[in-house]
Write the structure tokens for this entry.
Amino acid sequence: MTQTTTSGTWADKGLMRFLAAPPPAERLDDATVQKRYPKLRLQVFLGIFIGYAGYYLVRNNVPLVATILRDEEGFTTLGLGIVTNAVLVAYGLSKFLSAIVSDRSSARLFLPIGLALSALANLFIGFVPGIGASVAFFAVIMIFNGFVQGMGWPPSGRTLVHWFSTSERGSKTALWNIAHNIGGAGSGALAGLALATFGNWQAAFWFPGIVCLVIAVIAFFLLRDTPESEGLPPIEEYRADPAPVSSDAADDDATTWQTVNRYVLRNATMVKLAMANVFVYTLRYGVLVWAPVYLADERGASLGEGIAGFSLFELAGIPGTLLCGYLSDKVFRGRRSPAGITFLIGVFLAVLVYWLSPVDWPLGVSYAALVVIGGLIYGPVMLIGLQALDLSPRKVAGTAAGFTGLFGYVLGATLASTGIGLAVHNFGWDVTFILILACVLLAIAFMYSVGRDEQAMRKRNLAERV
């Protein structure tokens, strides 16, 4: 469904006018469509890829300097967990709220503005004296950073839905999803460079912030909103590939809240998908965020070696994500849940090695385990977001993905940061890893249930077409 900007629309009432999605342009002739469509598809893909990678450069660099904050600024393990949790919870809430707004906003404006604001928050941390002396002050700034960080995923998901059809979206989403890993690994590289060059932890924030201001400008010039706003046909028409879920006539007069309530909040499959995301994100951040601290405390790693483990985790997600997307399309024939479960079983085994390998073994063993965990966990991360897009109409696709993200970041991030911080502080790493392994099993259980629902939906759709 195309977006309008007439005076009575939700966008005009709830958004600043300049953020509202542009109206459809006059349809171009067929020859021009065939020439411009492939070019713009590549261009907008590069825009969301580069832009979203930029978000990760400034999302949460606290773990990269956690040992410095602990040793030089007096932060406790719990304090570090609180600061880390602040940005992740704020991000989760914002991802859902921003998705509702983003579904009716211009992706070309929404994504770069959020990135620029996040860059400014990191510049503030880097240049304002005294932030490191207060956990509360630090957490407040990170809450703001987390909130504007939520402006990155929804316009990216919306762009994928509008510019790429269902049959190709799995591979395209997997390819886009490695922006997470490139940005995450890049944050470690930039932080390491800044620490080595400038010699203080603040540089790990302001240096990536400057880089991201430039990236925000680049993303603006690359991005476009919908094909219709460029005078092109909808992607389903262009590729003759109908969407698996579409809104019906009853939705034409429905309010935004009514549509979200029908397809997202009261959708049992979407709720189970969101619960799976809770435990997948607990795994992802429970290992990633605490990797520098765990490697330092239990494996004797230096600050640089801890940051290297962080970056290896992220880089490993690149081939892992692409492999998962390929397997879900080619081996499992579009069934996302079996692919996700297969990868989670591998995560379970790798976490065991990461935890139980003897202390006197080489640090390379811990690195290898981190590589396997990172290589496998981003597959389910990608698939859950993809399933949310696939199992909802285009007009609420971003909101559906934001809903699963809300659960993942608010609940999952709380378990991964503050929860694990408390567990380590009170019970040690052994109990903590038992909790992490329990999360693997719970994630598998919810993904299995979602897979059954997805299979039933496929059968219903097939019966309706016959």
Observations:
- Residues 429-465 form the longest helix (37 residues).
- The two ends are 25 Å apart (CA to CA).
- Residues 35-242+261-465 form a domain with the Growth Hormone; Chain: A; fold (CATH 1.20.1250.20).
